[in-house]
Known about the structure:
Layout: H1 3-12, H2 17-21, H3 52-82, H4 87-122, H5 126-204, E1 210-212, E2 215-220, E3 224-226, E4 230-239, E5 245-257, H6 262-265, E6 274-280, E7 283-288, E8 296-301, E9 306-315, E10 322-333, E11 339-353, E12 391-392, H7 411-434
Amino acid sequence: MKIRRILATAVAAAVTTPVVFLSAAPAFADTKPAPASTQKPAADEDDKKPSLAELEKAVADAQAKVDELEGRRQKLVDELKAMKLDKALADELAEATKALGAAKAAEKTAAETLAKAEEALKSATPEQKEAAEKAVADAKKALGEATALKESAELRDQKAEQAAKPFSDARVALSQKIYRIDVDLILARETLKNAQEALEDFEELPEECKEDRSVLVDLTGPKKITAGTSAVFSLSIKNNSQRTLDSVNALAFATNLPDDWEDVLEGEKPEQFITVEWTGAGNPHWSPITEEFDSIEVGSLARGKKADVKLRLTLDPKIPVGKGVAFSTGAYENNDGSCGISEQYSNAYFDIVSGKTDKPQPKPTPSKTTATPAPAPTSGGNGNTSQQGGSSNTPVKGSLAATGANDTLPLGLAAAAAVALGAGALVVARRRKADGTA
């Protein structure tokens, strides 16, 4: 299914939100990003993107190259295995090598015998001297004969090797050809991998799905959570359309709101301090929401019906005290191919307080937990940001990144809905590539 990729579309526009909020707040309300179809490509990007047919051809061509190289390599390997030295020459080479080994061993033994004889001569008495001298002479003679035999064996071995050299050269040449093909195969397989990834990325791009209010979510929960503990939130997912939706999913995400967004922008994972799990009908156990299983699968939902699930947020003891937010939105896909992403999302803010009793705890900010209509626009403010813990009617699309900062709220709270979207988008975006078979 493509439902998870639909969720990616729902929040992708807000990925850059933290960057936007590092800029001057008064400009937000008057600045809207250009629609994706009208934005100009970067200077280093090609104006024309490859088509599906071109990408498929690139994969086919790369696969054909890999197949061709692997076929050539296998033939060379088979040829190398089949190469056999002429039997007579092989026998001669084997015998010469064996004879050379025996001659070298005999020379070594003769040298050791001579050394012992010479040592005995040094310590011999006058009565023993004559016999000791004869032993030395005999050992020298044996060593000379052994050396001559070794030299003869070396000449024989060299002749045999010279005779076998064309065969050895042929084997070396074949080995070199196989090596060169191996190098080409590395490049060809890398090209194939890149082509396959490009095709997968193209196929994973969400199809044209409507942005509507067919799926509505409402997320509520406690207003204060102590670091190192867990809290349960309630998530309601409603089919607001005029028909049965065959496959409904919801995205759930939670994060602390850092004081300095540079921490997030420099690679720190916003969600690293909060674990989110869910349970509901058909899923009686707490299931973690991870990169691999990143959404709540509601399944088929009849017209006007709701699905209620529980979210359990577990805060790391090391989580910074301050503000936190839980976020949810939805999407659907039908068997007839129709699909949609929700224009509506819901978020619930909470205070993160220290579990230590020797430090004063921050005073929780009062908030509402029921869905409320979007506040009326104010001068230079945000007319689409939801109340704390409530539901927003803001369409989840490019205009979110241009949401302004309300003068009556701290910048982090006024921006939190879009920030949560941005953080959620990071989670979903990581699934897009891994979900190519969905």
